[in-house]
Amino acid sequence: MTQIAPIDLRSDTVTRPDEAMRLAMAAAEVADDVLDHDPTMRALEDRVAELLGVDAALWVPTGSMGNLIALMIHLNRGDRFLAPAGAHVLDAELGTAAWLAGGMPHPLAWDAAPGRASAGAIRAAAGASGLYFNLRTTLLCLENTHNAAGGTVTQPDEHALLVSVAKETGLRVHLDGARLWNAAVALGVPPAALTVGVDSVQVCLSKGLGAPVGSAVAGSPTFVAEARRIRKMLGGGVRQGGVLAAAGLVGLDRIDDLAQDHANARTLAEGLVELGWTVRMPETNMVLAEVPDPEVTLIGLRHLGVYAWPMPGMLRFVTHRDVTEADIKETLRRISSAS
Ligand SMILES: *Cc1c(COP(=O)(O)O)cnc(C)c1O
């Protein structure tokens, strides 16, 4: 059998830095960021803060560390935090929200939309804290887009409503915005329209934006000063990090390119429907397809040179900047040739 080039739709994390990004990394001006700030790191942090409409930001090696830092700042032992079921902070960070940040997780059902709880559900879960031995609910974690729900988007008015209910009931708000850029592009709004009222927000540079490494966690200057201490505590202080921040800066110039990923996801979803698959229409760059036996279908696709990601009862296909429109057509051709 001749070797066919695989089309990797497992995740947008598979994106590799291209020539322009590598050149920017090679040319980056750097200094010791742990001692007195690396200039390129600083430029990236300022740019992220501006884009998110907050006062300060901090580069972190991963989104998981960004979320953990925020939760360590917001939570005390004996606190409870709310998050929509399937949230990354609940299911994909090894429980660090509990065992490092000290918060008891409370998943909220998706009673409003896939990946989203209603204002009423948040109000009810926030509730009065009761007796001294009851948990204190102190934090709401939102996720936009919601990964496990298939990259679903929360609109600015809905976001504002959830934040206002959280504030009324005495909760702080952390936004896991790993793919906030995708949400903003899908809605045609600036990213800052989706961060209104939050106490902290985490965004990824290493997914659809294509940087090899990096996220940022952002909020008030006081929050970021504390975040810098905790990043060091977790071993995440890097020295000449400008080499990595330079890649992030190039990525931030490419936010608008995400529209192509979203168009490609729609093309893929529509093509799969034509082939008789049961598919949820994508809001951003993820296509969820219901299949009776994900592992079996996954292996079949792998033989065709199409890589997807298994989920309970489903396969997930993620479009990204290393997959072209032609690759999506080729994906559909490979699948149709086998069916
Ligand atoms: C990818 C992701 C993160 C962070 O992931 P890292 O691999 O640690 O960078 C956080 N939240 C969501 C929703 C994600 O998809």
UniProtKB/TrEMBL annotation:
Residues 8-291 form the Aromatic amino acid beta-eliminating lyase/threonine aldolase domain. One of its GO terms (biological process) is L-threonine catabolic process. Gene3D superfamilies: Aspartate Aminotransferase, domain 1 (3.90.1150.10), Type I PLP-dependent aspartate aminotransferase-like (Major domain) (3.40.640.10). The lineage of its organism: Bacteria, Bacillati, Actinomycetota, Actinomycetes, Pseudonocardiales. SUPFAM superfamilies: PLP-dependent transferases. One of its GO terms (cellular component) is cytosol. The keyword Lyase applies. Belongs to the threonine aldolase family. GO terms for molecular function: L-allo-threonine aldolase activity; transaminase activity. The keyword RNA-binding does not apply. This is Aminotransferase class I/II-fold pyridoxal phosphate-dependent enzyme. Pfam families: Beta_elim_lyase. Keywords: Aminotransferase, Lyase, Pyridoxal phosphate, Transferase. Its cofactor is pyridoxal 5'-phosphate. The modification N6-(pyridoxal phosphate)lysine is found at residue 207.
